[in-house]
Amino acid sequence: MDKVVEQLKDLRSVKPKKDWVATQRELLLTQIKSQSASKHQSVFINGWYLFKSALPTSFLRFAAKPVGAFVVLCVFVFSTGILGVNASRASLPGDFLYPVKLTSEKVKVGFTVAGEKQAELHVQFAEERVNEIEKVSANEIELSKKKDKIKVAVDGLKKELVKAQDTLDKAKDNTQQKAQNVVDSAKKVDQKATELNEKIKKTKEGLSEDQEITEALTEAEEAVEKTSVKAVAVIVDKYVGGDVQLSEVELVEVIDNKINNAKEKVTAMTVKVTEVTAKAGEVAENAKIVKEIEDMELAEENLLKESVVSEGDTATIERDSTDVVNGNLENNVIEASAVIVTPTTGVSNIKAVEGLKDKPIEATQILTEAKDLLNHGDLASALEKIQQTAVLTNQVKQDVKILDQGLNKEISDAKDVADSKAEEQLLKEPSLK
Amino acid sequence: MDKASLKEKFLIYQVRQNKDAESYGQLYDFYVDRIFRFIFFKVSSQEIAEDLTSEVFLKTWEYINKTDRKIGNFNALLYRVARNAVIDHYRSKNKDFIGTDEEYMERIQDDRNLEEEVNIKIEVKSIEAHLTKLKEIHREIIILKYIEEFSIAEISEILDKGKGSVRVLLHRALQALKEIAGEE
């Protein structure tokens, strides 16, 4: 068999005659040239066919599958902007092309190598979220739809800002990154953040009728402010480390600004604490009434039974104060009012109000320290204090919210009880009298 | 043609986009010897092989410029055109045949052998003679595998058959050839 194969291989030597080949070539070329005038196709199609013909068929088959198509989409999304990316730029939350927009943003980040540049990108995207919020609020759609879209955008905003902060942090710690670059990016971030808060404020004013929206936008503002503080912290870090030359006066001014912003936040927080305290007082009042009624009933029953037992509830009534907190930041004193209805419901609320009582004072204290540190030139510590305050105010906000909900429930419960008691009284009175 | 394949693709692109004759000329230079040889072993006549080869290149040019489909494998395309040209050639001689190319190629053996037994030189033991005694489909696959040295995958593309079929066919072809060679 091998012999056969060998012989077959010999046959390879068969070739056409050289002059025949040459003549034929000329003939062929003449024929084909005469057949066609050269067509000019647009440059775009040229490029596309060249590209397509250069690709192996297996790739084209890959691209035809959903997975392949997605991969190709990602590449194109970044490079050429076709496949709806440009169209998606104007899209808003809830639109069909919105996911494409978000994906293209992710792709852009993927292609950015430098950490600080990534931070800038994230802030840019955060800005885009704010733009989306503005557009949505200007749109002629029903409020509930606006609310949903705004919430989506705010969520996205918060995420972008968190990423911005993280990447900035990493860039700060990355010794390979040039400090000047990091600082420049941080400055841009801070600047952008200030702009963003202006925009958000305006939008908030426009949509003040809806509480949920206002809340969401406030959260957005806080996230932006946090990012701003982080950016300044990064700058200060590099400055203190001696890696960059900066004007200390300017830095001090910026930080002072941040302290003032924080103070505003503390004021707002204090107002909320006041409100919730007042409410707690109301609840205490109701509780007192109910207790009195209950005591009365008990007493009457006991009279009838000829035994006097009056056991107070396990909880004690403390000061019943509905003093309103004075808004003066300098001397904040909140007096807690005790809230007792029954041990089960009231105790946790008591504790909560107690806990909140001192917070505004604490916050103000921290800010005073911050100012002090700043005046002594300890920039980094001053910033830390600011960040501390932010954490505190946030926590208080959460606590107030929970407490408020708890109190609302108590109020409505107590009201029910009081109403039913009153009814009972009305029914009973004729007979007792 | 691995390294040249990118160049080949570029040439094809030139041909399709700009109707560039010179680029086609380069493709011709690369493939003419092989196509000629392929056809020659099928028709066993130099003249006919020459004519058909020219025809193949002209037809391929027309096809490339007419079709929108992507030319994945120019090599396979050329061989396919060549095969079809040979079949058409025989068909035109046997005008009353109605059937598939496969069936036709099964039959060709009889007609051709008569023709060739007259033409053939008296080198009875030469492999060329053995080849001519094979059925066309067997001869073809032997040529593709051992003379043109295509892989099973490439052959399957040229013949438009599955790789399994190609292997089976090749095996049978070799068997047939062995028998013929053994007889002499």
What does this structure look like?
The complex is a heterodimer of chains A (433) and B (184). Chain A is mainly α. Chain A folds into 2 domains: 74-263, no CATH class; 272-304 and 315-432, no CATH class. Helices cover 77% and strands 0% of the residues of chain A. Chain A has 15 helices and no strands. Chain A is elongated. Chain B has 184 residues and is mainly α. Chain B is built from 9 helices and no strands. Chain B is 80% helix and 0% strand. In chain B, helix 1 crosses helix 2 (21-43) and helix 7 packs across helix 9 (163-183). Chain B folds into 2 domains: 1-93, RNA polymerase sigma factor, region 2, helix turn helix motif (Rna Polymerase Sigma Factor, Chain: A, Orthogonal Bundle); 118-184, Orthogonal Bundle (Arc Repressor Mutant, subunit A). The chains are: A mainly alpha (433), B mainly alpha (184). Chains A and B meet through helix 1, helix 2 and helix 3 of A and helix 1, helix 2, helix 3, helix 6 and helix 7 of B.
Biggest sheet layout of chain B: none
% residues in beta strands of chain B: under 5%
Helix percentage range of chain B: over 70%
- What gyration radius of chain B follows from the Cα positions, in whole Å? 17 Å
Q: Give the H and E element order of chain A.
A: HHHHHHHHHHHHHHH
State mean pLDDT of chain A (0 to 100 scale).
Answer: 76
> How many extended strands of chain B?
0
From the helix content, strand content and strand pairing of chain B, which structural class follows?
Answer: mainly alpha
Shape type of chain A: elongated
**Helix segment tally of chain A:** 15
Give the CATH class of the largest domain in chain B: Mainly Alpha
What's the quaternary structure here?
heterodimer
Q: Beta fraction of the residues of chain A?
A: under 5%
The name of the CATH architecture of the largest domain in chain B is Orthogonal Bundle
By CATH's scheme, which homologous superfamily of the largest domain in chain B applies?
RNA polymerase sigma factor, region 2, helix turn helix motif
Number of domains of chain A: 2
Instruction: Count helical runs of chain B.
Output: 9
